[in-house]
Amino acid sequence: MQAARSAARGILAAANNMRAAGAAPLTARVKKVAAVAAQHAPAVDRDSRFPEEAIAAARAEQLLGIAVPGDLGGEGASIAEIVDVCYALGRACASTAMIYAMHQTKVACLVRHGRTSPWYQLVLRRLANEQLLFASSTTEGQGGGDVRNSAAPIMRDGSRISLERHATVISYGKAADAVVTTARRAADAASSDQVLVTFLKQDYTLEPVVGWDAFGMRGTCSEGFKLVASGASEQIMPVSYDKIHMQTMMPVAHLLWSAAWAGIAAAAVDRARAFVRKAAQRSGGTLPPAAAHLTRANASLRTLRGLIASSLQRFAAADPDTLETIDFQTGMNLLKVNASELAVATVTSAMQTCGLAGYRNDGEFSIGRHLRDILSSPIMISNDRILANISAASLLSGIPETLSG
Ligand SMILES: Cc1cc2nc3c(=O)[nH]c(=O)nc-3n(C[C@H](O)[C@H](O)[C@H](O)COP(=O)(O)OP(=O)(O)OC[C@H]3O[C@@H](n4cnc5c(N)ncnc54)[C@H](O)[C@@H]3O)c2cc1C
């Protein structure tokens, strides 16, 4: 009986997966979306506009809802699979990759911490069926990257809630179907006593406060808004934000952002390799002196890829208790710092490989867009802030005795 039930569940999940996947394997669908993203990446960057073609393609290929569990209509994609999607998109269009990474980080929070709530089950079903796009609001007022404190409180009136927040940055806020936001639990709560709340498009208004004309990541359209929202109390996630942050929000964000940055770095290395090949062909097979920079770019890209792969393994193997340990938290915070530094170093080496051809904004070997995009990585939650936050933990944790363990 038990076996039959589990077989039926397996068939149902497989049917859901087939339906959601349109029978095409994930890698083929990602390739299609990446091709669209690559085609429009220069215009998205030039015009600082939302990558609507790429996100429409992602919707058509049902990539927005892949992480929703099979029993709620999705494909139950793992974080490892999402990491690979972010990497592939990053090679094509940095803004598309970062939008996808931010969306999937929010989805991971909903899937991993909202499953027991009927309201969230419904939202996840809608996400799978309608391919909704979720935006994120953590940055508030002058607080910068201080994600673990909120100013604006949730106000309650019976079963209704409301929130009015100075949301300094909400990437693709105008294009999103929902905003997942941190907030202070109540007017008399401490700033660190936070909740995570989902507001659907009909629940909120966004009054533009500041535009987005930035150096890179121009297609993320990371504008600032006054967010005025109301809804039902069940829209507050059933688990407090400190747990969500430690177990999902921080580690998943850092994994997916790092994957997007690795994609940008890989794209720059591709261009540098093509440059060296062409130079070698022109000079009868002799490598140009700048080939040494390509070796450097390759070396840092390898280290970056290895860092992400090992962090991914660690995350996948960790139980909820392990996720909250100081050692795990420190490791996942350092992933962000190290990945951003390696990605910047890789793109810089790729630029040096190509010399003037890389420095130019035009031409097949231009690295300009990649460099501008990747320079967002150390400031997207400032590396300085992260290092300062974990400095006490560095005193506590000792150095492991072995290299293999
Ligand atoms: C492309 C992009 C997209 C984004 N999308 C979103 C989004 O969708 N939603 C959202 O909510 N936010 C978003 N953000 C904002 C992001 O999450 C951070 O809040 C923001 O990058 C921090 O901005 P800041 O540099 O002004 O602030 P701060 O964190 O205040 O940093 C300012 C400077 O102060 C220094 N500093 C700060 N704290 C310390 C410390 N403790 N020790 C030493 N030095 C310190 C750092 O050197 C830093 O350069 C996005 C950012 C980027 C770049």
Can you give a write-up of this model?
The protein has a four-stranded antiparallel beta sheet, with no helix packed on it. Strands 1-4-5 form a three-stranded mixed beta sheet, covered by helices on one side. It has helices spanning 2-21, 26-47, 52-60, 79-92, 94-113, 118-130, 241-282, 291-317, 320-323, 326-354, 356-359, 368-374, 383-389, 391-396; strands at residues 134-137, 155-157, 160-170, 178-184, 194-200, 204-210, 223-232. Helices cover 55% and strands 12% of the residues. It has 405 residues and is of the alpha+beta class. The chain is built from 14 helices and seven strands. Bound molecules: flavin-adenine dinucleotide (FAD). Residues 102, 136-139, 144-145, 169-171, 217, 220, 222, 376, 379-382, 384-385, 388 line the site of flavin-adenine dinucleotide.
What's the mean pLDDT score? 94
What is the N-to-C order of secondary-structure elements (H for helix, E for strand)?
HHHHHHEEEEEEEHHHHHHHH
Please give the share of residues in helix.
55-70%
Main β-sheet, spatial strand arrangement: 2-3-7-6
**Strand proportion:** 5-15%
Going by helix content, strand content and strand pairing, the class is alpha+beta
Question: What is the radius of gyration computed over CA atoms, rounded to a whole number of angstroms?
Answer: 22 Å
> Which kinds of small molecule does this entry bind, naming each only once?
flavin-adenine dinucleotide
Q: Give the low-pLDDT segments.
A: 1-21
Q: What does the main sheet amount to? A: 4 strands, antiparallel
Large-scale geometry:
globular
What is the tally of beta strands?
7
Kindly report how far apart the N and C termini lie.
42 Å
Question: Total number of helical segments?
Answer: 14
